[in-house]
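Notes from the 1:1 (GR / supervisor)

We went over the backlog. Supervisor wanted to see one worked example end to end before approving the batch request, so GR pasted a single chain during the call. The sequence is below; no edits were made to it. Supervisor asked that the structure be written out right there so they could see what the output format looks like.
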Amino acid sequence: MKNKGNTVVVLLVVLIGIISGVGLLIGINNAVGAALSPLNARLAEIDRTERNIESKLNMGNGSMNPSLALIQNELAQIQNKINTLNSNPQQPQQPPAEDMNKVYNIPPGISSIIGRRDAPVTITEFSDFQCPFCSRFYSAIKDVLAAYPNQVRVVIKNYPLPFHPNARPAAKLAMAANEQGKFQGMMESLMANGGDVSDAKIKEYAKNLNLNYDRLMADYKNQDARWEKQIQDDMQLGQNVDVRGTPTFYLNGRKTGARDLGSFKAQIDAILSRK
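Structure output shown during the call:
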């Protein structure tokens, strides 16, 4: 009887364990289901959205295709325009050809004059003192003045280019030097040094030209408005007479392409022969 009782106890323990295990599994399953519920809901929503889009695509033959056709048509038109431009490229608009026979009215005004003031031939130069080409071709002007000391004068007009930051202050420094009668010397010094207007260079220019440095700097700074107006007047005149760059030379008002003594000489001799 004792063995039977022990067996019953063991069976009861096993049965209780099985029941507890089943309950635990049910609890776990419920917990997992609760945790996955939001995910399942989201998946169901995505599935509904996909089916809705698919339905619209299947039904949209009458509403979406026309829009797509319009877009394709516009793209085709744009491509046609691109093809047309590529096959017929537009040439950049060129400025009108220069009329080298036109005589412009270019009064000397208050501009600095190099040479005899009553000379019958006037070379007017629109110049930028930082311009390397102005510096390069100025040697031809000096050669002309040496060859025609009594027949040629040179009028210097200021035309500082916007991409030369020292050109404007250099022009003003030359005008300030002109107050002491040293315009030409200052202009040549500036051209030889690329328009350098640093303090050290200005002192060097003043020393080499025997200028009163204090007076030079006073005129340079205190009369800035006067120099600025003269520059503006020169530039406006340059625009009126079709200046397109620097240097631009005129012989008695007629634009010239001469850049060396021989070319200038041929034109100057022709002018003098008519006088």
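Supervisor's comment: Residues 2-59 form the longest helix (58 residues).
Batch request approved.
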